[in-house]
Design brief:
By secondary structure, the protein is an alpha/beta fold. It is built from 7 helices and 7 strands, in the order βαβαβαβαβαβαβα. It has helices at about 30-40, 55-70, 95-110, 130-140, 155-170, 185-200, 230; strands at about 20, 45-50, 75-80, 115-120, 145-150, 175, 200-205. Strands 1-2-3-4-5-6-7 form a 7-stranded parallel sheet, with helices on one face. β1 (about 20), α1 and β2 (about 45-50) form a beta-alpha-beta unit. The chain is globular.
Length: about 230
C-alpha cells in the first residue's frame, strides 16, 4: 500500500482513512473491534473520530481497542472538537476554555497522552481566530497534539485562519476535512481545492458515498431501508 503524507506534516498514513462515526451508534463495541481489526489487518493505520460521535463513545471504543491491542504507536489517531456535545448550549465552539477542556476529555477517552491530528469540527465565528489558533499552538507545544486541521470551513475562513497563524507564528491548519463526493462537488472543487493546492494542505474527505446514497441502496419508488442512517 502506498502511504501518503498529509500537508506539511511528518505523518505517514494509509490513503484510506477509517471514519469512526458509527462506533457506539450503529456498531457496538464488539462490532467496532471487528471493523478496526479488519482495517488494520488490511494495511490501514489512519483512524478519524470526534468528541461528539456517540456522545464520546466512539473515542472511548477506539481507546479501549488500542489499549487491548497495544497498538497506539502503530496507528495515527485524528479527532475533532467544536461541535455541540449533548444538550448544553455552552458545550461547543472553539474558545480557549472549551478546547482545553475537551482535549483533556478526548485524551482520557482515547487512553493516550497525545493526539496525532486535532481538528476543528466546524467553524466558530463567535470566537476570534487568534484565540483558537493560539490555543492549538499551546497544545502542540505541550506535546498533547502533534498537528491541527480544520473541517467544514469555507475557503474564506480557512484562508483567514492560515493568515492569522502566519502573522503570529502559530501552528497552522495542515489538513482540511470537507464533504466531497460525486453528488456534492461544487464547493470543494471551485473554492477549497485551489486553496489547498496553493497552501500545500492535506485533504481528508468525508461522506465519500453521500451517506450511502451512492451505494445504490436508496432507490426511487422503493421503501427506505430500516436503518438508523436511513431514518436521518
Amino acid at each position: 500500500m502506498i502511504k501518503r503524507k498529509p500537508g506539511h506534516t511528518d505523518l505517514i498514513v494509509s490513503p484510506l482513512c477509517l471514519g469512526g462515526n458509527v462506533f457506539g451508534w450503529t456498531a457496538d463495541e464488539r462490532g467496532s473491534f471487528v471493523v478496526l481489526d479488519a482495517y488494520v489487518d488490511g494495511g490501514g493505520d489512519f483512524i478519524d473520530t470526534a468528541d461528539v460521535y456517540s456522545g464520546g463513545e466512539s473515542e472511548s471504543i477506539l481507546g479501549r481497542w488500542m489499549s487491548t491491542r497495544k497498538n497506539r504507536d502503530r496507528v495515527i489517531v485524528a479527532t475533532k472538537v467544536g461541535s455541540r456535545m449533548g444538550s448544553d448550549p455552552h458545550a461547543q465552539g472553539l474558545s480557549r476554555r472549551y478546547i482545553l477542556e475537551e482535549v483533556e476529555a478526548s485524551l482520557k477517552r482515547l487512553q493516550t497522552d497525545y493526539i496525532d491530528l486535532y481538528q476543528s469540527h466546524r467553524d466558530d465565528p463567535s470566537t476570534p481566530l487568534d484565540e483558537t489558533m493560539a490555543t492549538f499552538d499551546e497544545l502542540v507545544r505541550q506535546g498533547k497534539v502533534r498537528y491541527v486541521g480544520a473541517s467544514n470551513y469555507s475557503a474564506a475562513r480557512l484562508r483567514e485562519a492560515l493568515r492569522v497563524s502566519e502573522q503570529h507564528g502559530y501552528v497552522r491548519y495542515e489538513c482540511l476535512q470537507p464533504p466531497y463526493n460525486l453528488v456534492n462537488r461544487t464547493e470543494y472543487e471551485r473554492e477549497l481545492e485551489p486553496l489547498c493546492l496553493e497552501q500545500g494542505l492535506g485533504v481528508i474527505t468525508y461522506s465519500s458515498l453521500a451517506s450511502g446514497f451512492l451505494t445504490g441502496k436508496y432507490r426511487q419508488g422503493k421503501a427506505l431501508p430500516s436503518s438508523p442512517r436511513a431514518k436521518r
